Amino acid sequence: MKLYDGGKAPNPRRVRIFLAEKGITVPIEPVDISTQQHKSEAFTAVNPLQRLPALVLDDGTVLTESIAICRYFEALQPQPALFGTGALEIALVEMWQRRIELHLLAAIQAVFRHLHPAMQAFEKPQVAEWGEVNKPRVMDFLNLFDRELGNRRFAASDTYSVADITGMIAIDFMKPAKLTVPAELKHIARWYAEVSARPSAKV
Question: In terms of Cα–Cα distance, which of 171, 186, 52, 50 is closest to 108?
Fold first, then answer.
């Protein structure tokens, strides 16, 4: 088994945090996104979509997409449960993981990819208007998320889950996207302080 890892990029980091929470160690092969190593012939043979992370199993099966990889390890090692336990919590974790991924992380990525000068070589074409359109979308979701966090400890329930991992890496990715969480969102500040203090957040 081998995990192709993309360093500081959000999705590879999401898997590393998940594995750290599980206490699972997997051999890692770094792929340098900054030099477009993910577009090399060798890595394209692993994942034709040229995206990271990618997990190659011992039988040669390749799993891509960060949440699919996390689900694989959740099934192998159910505890600690990071996708919820019981029908209701599992559904809530799925709902909030998807909400955060689609309405926060994806919007932040759009801002970064279409407005940051360093992304000109990667995002062709860069559409500045699309980056600007996503800035208020980020803020709208942050306001909704803050209200929700006033009702519970973590993103989906009072138990830490993969939704918190996605939320934390989204907030962290706001910095390179030159976005800031508004100071008045106190519930996000409380939640972020807790989740970012976990040892897994340092990987």
Answer: 171
Peptide bond into 80 cis (omega under 30): yes
Round to the nearest angstrom and report the end-to-end CA distance of the chain.
Answer: 20
Q: How far apart are CA 175 and CA 111, in angstroms?
A: 11
The torsion defined by the Cα of 154, 141, 100 and 27, in degrees rounded to 10, comes to -90
Q: Could you tell me what percentage of the chain is helix, strand and coil, using 3-state DSSP and rounding each to the nearest 5? A: 60, 5, 35
Residues 6+ apart with CB under 8 A from 151: none
Query: Does the global pTM surpass 0.90?
Result: yes
Residue among 146, 152, 139 nearest 103 (CA): 139
Q: Given pLDDT bands bounded at 50, 70 and 90, which one contains residue 69?
A: very high
